[in-house]
# Entry
Amino acid sequence: MLYKFVITVVSLLFLSSCVNEKTQTESKIFRSLDAISTGIDFQNILIENDSMNYFNYTSIYIGGGVSTGDINNDGLIDVFFTGNQVKNKLFLNKGNLQFEDITNKAGVGGDSRWYTGSTMADINGDGFLDIYCSVAGIANERRNQLFINNGDGTFNELGEKYGVDDSANSIQGTFFDYDNDGDLDLYVANYPISNVNTSNFEYLNRMKTVSDQESDKLYRNDGDAFTNVSEVSGLKSYGFSFGVVASDINNDGWQDIYISNDYSIPDYFYLNNGDGTFKNVIKQATSHTAFYGMGIDVADFNNDGNLDIFQADMDANNNRRQKANMASMKPEVFNEMVFMGFHYQYMHNCMQLNTGALENNIPQFSNISRLTGTSSTDWSWGPVFADFDNDGNKDLFITNGVRREINNTDFFNTYSKNDSTKYSDLQKSLMIPSEKVDNFIFKNKGHLHFEKANKNWGIEYEGFSSGVAYADLDNDGDLEIITNNIDDFASVYENKSSNTNNYVTINFNGETKNKFGLGNRVYVTTQGQTQMQELTLTRGFQSSVSTRLHFGLNSSKKIDTLKVVWTDGKIQTIENVKANQHLVLKYDDASFSNKKSRVEPTLFKTVKDDIFPKHKHIENTHDDFLKQILLPHKMSAFGPALATGDLNNDGLDDFFVGGAFGYTGNIYFQTKEGFKEATIEFLKEDKLSEDVGALIFDADADGDNDLYVVSGGYEFASHSTLCQDRLYLNNGSGEFIKTALPEMKTSGSRVYNTDFDKDGKQDLLVLGRQIPGQYPSPATSYLLMNRSTETEVVFVDETKNKAKDFLNLGMATSAVITDFDNDSWLDIIIVGEWMPIKVFKNMKTEFKEVSSEMGLNSDTTGWWWSIKEGDFDKDGDVDFIVGNNGLNYKYKATENETFDIYVNDFDNNNKKDIVLSYYSEGEQVPVRGRSCSSQQIPGIKQKFKDYNSFSEANLVDVYTKEALESSLHYQVKSFASVYLENKDGQFIIHQLPIEAQFSSINQVLVDDYDNDGNLDALIAGNLYVSEVETPRNDASFGYFLRGNGKGDFKAIKPSESGVFIKGDTKDLAEINVKGERYIIIAKNDDYIQFIKVN
# Structure
C-alpha cells in the first residue's frame, strides 16, 4: 500500500513538472531564428586597425541601424541593415520568414563609408519606399546617401541631386511634414567629432557659434530637391545628437521634434510654431533629462491619448557594472552645467510621462523611469515601444551593450590617448575590457507597471546590439524583433502572440506626396479602452519601422470604434470592426468635421491675477556636503515657512511666507483691492535665522492672532542660537513684538497648536528636524504648555515631564494632532525621515507611545514628509494620509531588500561617517562608489586598490561586520506613500494610487473639494536637493485624489482637475480671498503659486 502511494506521488510530481514545463514553454512568445533558416546573414563585423580604433575615433562602437518596410509593395515587409566597415544589406521577404539578399541587384550596399542610421520613406511620392542612409566616421567621404526606389527592385543613389547629402557626421534622419504642405521634409541628426574631455565652457561657446557643418539640419521638401532651412526655422544647433523623433507631441496638429543629446549638452525639444519656425522648450517641458542621451522613442504607452517619450542612457542595472564602468558625476561639473543654463541631467533612462497638462502650449512631462523599473538597462542604445504580446498595452524593448567598456575606470586611469606607456593606440584599444550583455524587454502590465520579461518571453541574447526595428514579417498578426549586432549575426525573433491574442493592422493610402500617411493618427477603442498611435517611422536608435500600424486587441473580437485623423485634419470613423484583419484606410474616405471639442471647466485653476503678490522665495547658497560628504540630500533647503490667518484684525485672511538664511520673511495683508506687503522691521532682526515653519494663532488669548516661526536649516552650529524659534505677539493692529520662548536650540520643521490639557489655553507641539552637521542623528521635539497669565505670555517646556519619548525622537518632519481613539483627548502622531510612524496617546497627564499597540512598528520606518487626517471611509473614526518619499526615487526598499543607513566613526578619525546601502542581486552593497566613499574614508583606497575590486565588494567587505553592528542604524522597507486606515483599534496600511508615488508628498490638504460627500486629498511635494548622482525627486506636479468614501482614492489627471503644481513644493495652505477659496503653494527658491478652488 505504501509502495502504491509513493508511486502515485512520484507520478503526480512528474506530471506536474511536465505541465509546468509545457506552460513555461507556451508562455515564451518569442523564438530566436538563426541565419541559416531565415537567410538574413548580415554581420556588422568591426576590425580595429592603426587608423580606426577607439583612440582615433571614440564613436567606433555605436554600431549600425536596421529599417523595415515593404520596398516592392508585395505585402511582405523587407529588412535593410547598415554596416560600419561592411556593406549594407537589403533582404527581400519571400514569405514564411524566408529572405533573399538582393543587395547587389538593388544597388544599396554602399561603398567604404561608415554607415550609421537608416530610415525608409517615400520622399518623391511615387508610392515606393526609398532609403536614406546616414554616414559618420573619420574618412574624408562622409556624405549621407539617398537611395531612390525605381520600383523594379533597384535603387539609384541621388543624395546630391536632392540636396540631402549632408556631410556633418550624421547619426540618423527622420522624414516628416513639418510645414503641413503635404510632402515629407527631412531632419538630420548629427554628432560632430569632438574630444571627450571638452569643457562645458567650450560646449557653451560652440552652441553659441555653431557652424553649418556641425549643426543638425532641417531640409524642406521643395519638390525636385530639398532646401536647408535650419537657420531660418530656428533649428541650427550644436549637439551630440544620438536620437531624433518627430511627432505631434503637444496635440496641436503640427509635428514637433525631440533630439536626444550625448554628454552635458542638453536635449533639444523643438515645438513647432506652425509658421515654419520652432522653439526649444526642453527646460519648460521636462524637469530633468538623461545625461548621456542615446536613442529615443515616442508613444502613448499608458493609453491616455498623449504621446510619451523614452530616452535611453547608460546606467548599469547591477552594482558591479555600475561601480566598475560607469562614470561618476562631480558636483562642481554638475553645478557648472546648471549654472551655464544647460539643464538638470542625470545618468539614467528617462521615461517621460506626458501629463496632458499644457503651460503656454508646452506639454509637461514627469520622468517615471524609476517607478516603472526602466531606469537602468546598462549601456543602452535603441528603445522602441510596441505591443509585442497583443494585449493592448505597448511594451518596451531596449538594445544594449558596448563592444568595449570605454567607461572602465581602472583601464582609463592607466591608459589614455597621450599616456606614457609604450603601447600603440591600436594595442590600447584592443586591451579595453569587453563584456557581453543582454538586451531588455519590458512587458507593460498597465497602470504604469512594467516587468522585465526576457526569460518569460524567450528573448535572451548576450552581445552588443545597437539598431532595432520591429515588423510583422510573416503577416500572422504579431511583431517580430530585428536587431543589428556588432561582431555577430543580426538577430531575428519570431513572435507567436497572435496565437493567443487578437490584433488589427493598418496601412494608409494617402495623397500623392505622402502616400503612406506619415503623421496620421489612429484611435482604436475596445471595451472602453482607447489606444492611440501616430505613424512615425524613425524610432529608437539609427533605425526605422514599417509604414504599417499594429494594434494588439487582447481577447476582443471586434473594435468598437476606429478613428483615423489625417495630417490635414480630415477624419474617418468606422464602427464594429472585426479583429484579426489588415485594413487599408484611404484619404478619400475621410472628411472634415465641424465638431468642436468642448473644454470642461476644472475644479481647480491656477490664477495669476494682479490681486496676488509676485513673491519669490530665494534660497541661500550653502554646501551641506562640505561637512558630510555622503549626505543623501541637502538639509538646508526645506523652506519657506507658510501660514495664513487674520493678522491685523480686519476680518480678512493674510499670510506669512518665511525667508531663508540671510533673507527676511514677509507678511502680506489682504485689502479690498488685493494684498499689501506689511512693514516687517521686527522680522529683519531675525533674518539670519531660516524660517521653515510658521503658525498664526492667538497665543495670549487677547483676541488677535500672533505669529510663531520655526527656525531650521543646516548652516549653523549644532546648538546655535540661530536655531531658536521665535514668537511674535500682535498688538491688534498688525504690529509685532518678539517674546521669550523656552530654550530650544534645535533645527526644527513645524509647529502645531491645540489645547492638550483642556485648560482653555493653546499649547504647542514643536518638531525637531535635525542636528546641523550630524545627519541622521535624532533631534528632540518639544511639548510647550501654555501657562500664560493675564499679564504675561508664558510657554513652559514640559517635554521631560509629559512627553519624555519626544527627547531625541528623530528627524521629525510632520505631525497631526488627532483623537484617534475617540476618547475626547487629543493625541499626537509624528512622522519623519528615517522614522517609523509614531503614535502618542494623551493619557491626560502625559503622552505615552502606543505605536506597537496600534499595529505600527519599526517596519514603518520611511522618509515621511507629511501626515493629515480625515474620516476617509466614513466609519466614524479618523484615518490618515501619510506622505513618504515615493516609489520613483533612485533609492528602493522592500521587506527583504531594505535601504539602510549606518553612522559610525569607521576610520577612527573622531568624525562620524555616513554609509548608505541597498541590495543588488540579493547582496547588500554600498550606494556610493569608490571615489565618493574614499573622500569620506581615505583608507578605502588602500583597502581596495582599484575600482574593480571595490565593485565586487559587499557592504561587510568594505566596512566590516563589527563596525556596522556598532553603528547608529536605520532601515527602510518601503518608500510608498500610504493611506492609514483606522480599524478596530489598529492601523492598517494601504498604498496610495500609483500617481501619488511619483515623488515625495511634502504636504496634504483634506476636504470634500468636489462636494460629493466624500473627503478628498490634494497632495504636492518633490525633493530638488538630492546629491548630484541621485536624480532629484521632481516628477510630481501635485495631484487631486478623489475619495470614494470607502477609503479608496482615484488620482485625477492634471488636465482634468486643474491641479498643476510645478516646483520644489514645501507647503500648502488655504486662504479666503474676497469670499472665494484659494490655495497658496510655497516652493523653495521659487515664486509662490495661487490656485482657485472652483
Summary: The CA atoms of residues 839 and 989 lie 14 Å apart.
